[in-house]
């Protein structure tokens, strides 16, 4: 482990590239820093390399060039299982275990870490509370007994259970109906103000990026970084305040 200071980014991509075996260059040469406690949204058209970028951070995809550091440590030299225990991962299709209760789902990583039962119970209850689910009633249910929005909350609770410093979120709220999505976004913002994780959040919804992101990274094909700015600046500003804005409305032009 390399030494870090408070000023070092929590996540650092240095000249990162990914060429898939079929020759597709998903990401050509990407350099990007995410400071600790920042929520960075990645937006851009379908196929521009957002998901590949995210999956290289927790080594679900291995880069073919460059380096990725998490808390100063080169992920290529970190055991993937150990790495993923420090990086919560929330995806659109949730990935809850259907045969396990909500309680058991949220307790997955703490169980793997060998926590004792009382500590797991207390942590799971706290996490369910945090995401707005009543531990007593919801903890005993199975995923199919929950709404889509509730399942997504369980996914967030599970990702936070072992208190990882980093969260990767890949279109976590996209499959949820607009009203529930709006509530989830608001609650996630409230939550993030409390827990201040370093979050990389992929979305095709620019409104969502503007609402949630401390900064927005706009990608174009090949994982090229078009711009990276706070939402109030040019990337996300509507045309009335920024005639030169490449994004003409609150929606991401080329996005899915
Ligand atoms: P995004 O998340 O922005 O939609 P992806 O990172 O999923 O983009 O994909 C970037 C590019 O890499 C696309 O052209 C996609 O088709 C390609 N790609 C993704 N996964 C694979 C794979 N396993 N094998 C080959 N090409 C892939």
From TrEMBL:
Q: What's the domain of life for this entry?
A: Bacteria
The record's section on Gene3D superfamilies has: P-loop containing nucleotide triphosphate hydrolases
Q: Does the keyword ATP-binding apply?
A: yes
Q: Where is this region: Disordered?
A: 227-256
Main enzyme class: translocase
Keywords from the named record:
ATP-binding, Nucleotide-binding, Transport
* Stretches with biased composition (Low complexity): 230-248
The UniProt GO MF terms for this protein read:
ABC-type quaternary ammonium compound transporting activity; ATP binding; ATP hydrolysis activity
Question: Does the record's keyword annotation contain ATP-binding?
Answer: yes
Q: What is this protein called?
A: ABC-type quaternary amine transporter
Which species does this protein come from? Frankia alni (strain DSM 45986 / CECT 9034 / ACN14a)
């Amino acid at each position: 482990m390399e030494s870090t200071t408070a000023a070092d980014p929590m996540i650092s991509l240095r000249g990162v590239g990914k060429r898939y075996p079929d020759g597709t260059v998903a990401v050509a040469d990407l350099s990007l820093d995410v400071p600790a406690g920042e929520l960075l949204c990645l937006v851009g058209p379908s196929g521009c390399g957002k998901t590949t970028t995210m999956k290289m951070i927790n080594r679900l995809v291995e880069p073919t060039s460059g380096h990725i550091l998490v808390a100063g440590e080169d992920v290529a030299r970190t055991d993937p299982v150990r790495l993923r225990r420090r990086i919560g991962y929330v995806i659109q299709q949730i990935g809850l275990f259907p045969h396990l209760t909500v309680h058991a789902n949220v307790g997955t990583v703490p169980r793997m870490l060998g926590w004792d039962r009382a500590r797991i119970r207390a942590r799971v209850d706290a996490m369910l509370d945090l995401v707005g689910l009543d531990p007593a009633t919801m903890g005993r249910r199975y995923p199919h007994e929950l709404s889509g929005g509730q399942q997504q909350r369980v996914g967030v609770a599970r990702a936070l259970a072992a208190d990882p410093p980093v969260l990767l979120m890949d279109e976590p709220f996209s499959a949820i109906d607009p009203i529930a999505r709006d509530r989830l976004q608001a609650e996630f913002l409230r939550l993030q103000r409390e827990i201040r994780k370093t979050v990389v959040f992929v979305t095709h919804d620019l409104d969502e990026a503007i609402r949630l992101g401390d900064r927005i990274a706009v990608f174009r094909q090949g994982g090229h970084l078009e711009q990276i700015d706070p939402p109030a600046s040019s990337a996300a500003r509507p045309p009335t305040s920024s005639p030169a804005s490449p994004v003409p409305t609150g929606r991401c032009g080329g996005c899915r």
